[in-house]
Design goal:
Layout: E1 3-9, H1 17-30, E2 34-41, H2 51-61, E3 67-70, H3 80-92, E4 96-99, E5 104-106, H4 112-145, H5 161-169, H6 174-181, H7 185-194, H8 201-205
Helix pairs in contact: 3-4, 5-7, 6-7
């Protein structure tokens, strides 16, 4: 008999989580699946690193289960992107995925119905990704127009960019520059990236990796 994991994230909207629990167990029995893992947690749906969810995915990676049963699709990830990622991870390990109340049954091997569901889900995830990207770009543009300084704040003790650029142009390694200016090599690199591009220092600073060994 194949083994399965039951996973249910209890939502604040659930009036009676006992109902979902019983439906999942009945679905496993109807499919002749032995329950190897039964996880129910109340973690936030905004997180995809919930401990119970990770236990289920880890069981799939270890080959301890043949199927994962959830009550509804939205209980398996915080977004279409996460749901798609989690299902594909199971599929790669040969683990079947079933959302029992929605008639979704994705079997490893890519049967036509499974491929169709994954294609639709991938389209929704891509749409969601583009919306996130668009909102991010709009937010950045709004911040720039409002005069907000973007990026990592510059430490008061950060090295002077023109000084870093000059030393770098003279052939100094990042380690030598950090010793000279009393900073870390990474701080020196960040300062070089802030140096004016017109003096050529930016190009020097982003040179090949072998320059690290330069004495």
């Amino acid at each position: 008999m194949n083994h399965c994991a039951l996973y249910h994230r209890v939502s604040t909207l659930d009036q009676d989580p006992h109902l979902a629990r019983e439906e999942l167990r009945a679905a496993a029995s109807a499919r002749r699946l032995a329950i190897a893992l039964d996880v129910e947690e109340a973690g936030s749906g905004a997180r995809n690193d919930r401990p119970g969810l990770q236990r289920v995915l880890d069981a799939g990676r270890r080959g301890q289960i043949d199927a994962v049963l959830v009550w509804k699709l939205d209980r398996f990830g915080r977004s279409a992107l996460d749901v798609l990622h989690n299902i594909r991870e199971l599929d790669a390990e040969g683990v079947r995925f079933v959302a029992v109340t929605q008639g979704i049954d994705i079997r490893p091997g890519g049967d036509p119905a499974s491929r169709l569901i994954l294609t639709v889900l991938a389209g929704v995830a891509e749409f969601e990704r583009e919306l996130i990207r668009e909102r991010t770009l709009l937010g950045l543009d709004h911040a720039r127009r409002a005069g907000t300084r973007l990026g990592r704040p510059v430490s008061p003790g950060a090295p002077d960019p023109p000084r870093v650029a000059m030393l770098r142009a003279q052939g100094a390694s990042w380690r030598a520059i950090s010793r000279e200016l009393g900073c870390t090599p990474s701080a020196a690199r960040r300062a070089a990236r802030r140096a004016p591009a017109e003096n050529g220092a930016l190009e020097q600073a982003s040179g090949p990796v072998e320059n690290e060994a330069r004495p």
